[in-house]
Amino acid sequence: MNHHPTAAFPALRLRRPRASAWSRAMVAETTLSPTDLIWPLFITEGKGVETPIATLPGVSRWSVDRVVERAREAKALGIPCLAFFPNTPPEKRSDDGAEALNPDNLMCRAIRAVKDAVPDIGILTDVALDPYTSHGHDGLTDAAGYVLNDETTEQLVLQALVQAAAGADIVAPSDMMDGRVAAIRAGLEANGHRNVQIMAYAAKYASAFYGPFRDAVGSGGLLKGDKRGYQMDPANAEEALREVALDLAEGADSVMVKPGLPYLDIVRRVKERFAVPVFAYQVSGEYAMIEAAVAAGAGDRDALVLETLMAFRRAGCSGVLTYHAAHAARLLG
Ligand code: PBG
């Protein structure tokens, strides 16, 4: 493409098409609509329960019956997909995270309830053990606290199968174990879940932006050490491309970059290199930053939300997981 203008000022005035709203709309290179949004929801035990999360102002944990309400709301707003994260009661957490494999755990009950009430909405489930372990790590650990790759992967396959059996449409491994996409794909194929998709958290960084999420699922206070032994170093971009290449070769239908805004360079490189559906997770700390800016009078929420979401689209995202999904869909509707 030739970006060198053949005319110069004043024949060429780039401000001309910006002069009116209809014209700006006509030349816009990128679109943003509710169908670009995936809404993460936190699930808690009980009935009729809404528990606000202090570090995520405006976001709550919902009991299963109220998750169903959120699903109806999302459907009406044109949001195509929900992402579920359980806040497992402390007494059900264990070293090995066995509750992840319980077909009647909070996650599975929520999937079944929503599939029953709102069949035509996608459900994405996180595959990782951290909401279920007593140490807050995404996998099984050895005596020294090292997260064991292959043993964890075996558990993740079983977890994904339990979620798929409950009705999950997309399983999203967020654990960063090597080889888990292939193992989960094989498990799904062998168990009659041919059309269950895998969205791989392919480039997931060891980030300081996950704090409020860990409060929301109740793993933050429990976490021993950090996740740098399995999540990626924020210094690395080439490595993200290798992660994506591997996950695609292993059968991922789509890939995710996480966090979002600080990693838009990764989104762009992945999109250009692989031309596959790329999603970004605008994570809890990013949401909290916007809300803190709004609370401090430093910006307008609606404008900040729509601008950041458009930036994800411009960078190459097919869609964005965002806690602002319902609000943004309302603004766009
Ligand atoms: C767990 C998981 C995390 C997030 C999504 N899945 C946290 C972590 O890796 O510690 C973070 C999402 C957010 O911060 O909004 N495997």
From TrEMBL:
Catalysed reaction, written as an equation: 2 5-aminolevulinate = porphobilinogen + 2 H2O + H(+)
MF (Gene Ontology): porphobilinogen synthase activity; zinc ion binding
EC number: 4.2.1.24
One GO CC term, this protein: cytosol
Keywords for the protein's UniProt record, in alphabetical order: Heme biosynthesis, Lyase, Magnesium, Metal-binding, Porphyrin biosynthesis
Domain of life: Bacteria
Active site: residue positions: 204, 258
SMART domains linked to this entry: ALAD
Lyase among keywords: yes
GO biological process entries: protoporphyrinogen IX biosynthetic process
Positions with a binding annotation for Mg(2+): 243
Oligomer status and interactors: Homooctamer.
Family, similarity comment: Belongs to the ALAD family.
Protein name as catalogued: Delta-aminolevulinic acid dehydratase
Organism of provenance: Alterirhizorhabdus solaris
